[in-house]
Amino acid sequence: MDKIDISTSISNIKLSSCIMNASGALCSTEIELLNLLKSSSGAIITKSCTNILRKGNLEPRYFEWKLGSINSMGLPNLGIDFYLYFLENIEFKKPFFLSISGLSTEENLLLVEKSNAFSNIDALELNFSCPNINTNKKILGYNFNEISNLLEKIFEFNKKPVGIKLPPYFNDDHFNKISNILNKFPISFVTCINSIPNGIFIDINKESTVIRPNNGFGGIGGKIIKPFALSNVNKFYSLLRKDISIIGCGGITSGKDIFEHILCGATAVQVGTQFIKEGIKIFDRLKNELVSFIKNKDYSSINNFKGNLKKVK
Ligand code: RRO
Fold this sequence. Notes:
- 30% of the residues lie in helices and 19% in strands.
- The protein is α/β, with parallel strands linked by helices.
- It has an 8-stranded parallel sheet.
- Strand 8, helix 4 and strand 9 (162-166) form a beta-alpha-beta unit.
- The chain is globular and about 50 Å long.
- The structure holds ligand RRO.
- Residues 24, 48, 71-75, 101, 127, 129-132, 194-195, 219 line the site of ligand RRO.
């Protein structure tokens, strides 16, 4: 049997498989992270963290149905020190990404500074797109001036590979503006997309919302958001510098979905809702499905078709 190569690299970080978890999905506690370390995911990313532990929003705060999920978790996490020290006495062989989500410029700078002192952290994913915090304020990813100022400050001292978790964008003006900013900084990757903000899901029997926080409004993930994830991956593939990798995230439930993300330009993919639904065995299943799909297409590596999406003429 010919070997199908689904390994990939982001900056100089090598992933044996291009499939990993999405931040927020079963990656908050020691047990969850140890499970991921043992799994066949190509890398691991943590739940977005803040400087101090947060309990998050009141429950119920997560709900899933056939086509997707809605959440308003409110950034529950164990605090950055837990994620930094958790790795200290553990032998591990795969890349470890730390997701950070400070609630102010000062906090973000502190989180970047702290993580720079830990050689076990391979890369940072700056979460600029949490839909459930300060819902009366703009999501950072939609505040272009603030992003520019924050990145300016971070790159005055940061030495780690940095990526940005972006919210979904829906018009060319936004795609162009954010791309122009990101292209000015030595970032290694973007991850797109975070959940689509301010959705609502209704329990028809109870005639009620299904999550408690924020009057039932929350971020939408899962199958239903795939067309928007793919469009964002593909737009950024054409607009960003070629040395900026794209991690596709949104709507992945099968090997075919991963193929589509890579065809749009993704270098790796993250799985959130379906990982929560299916558990840790998902990484073996997706890997097998992707390898079979690639083989049937007569390709031998993800690089044979990455970014080759054809457009109807
Ligand atoms: O914790 C959350 O409410 C949350 C975060 Br930080 C995020 O980035 N995306 C999301 O859907 N939920």
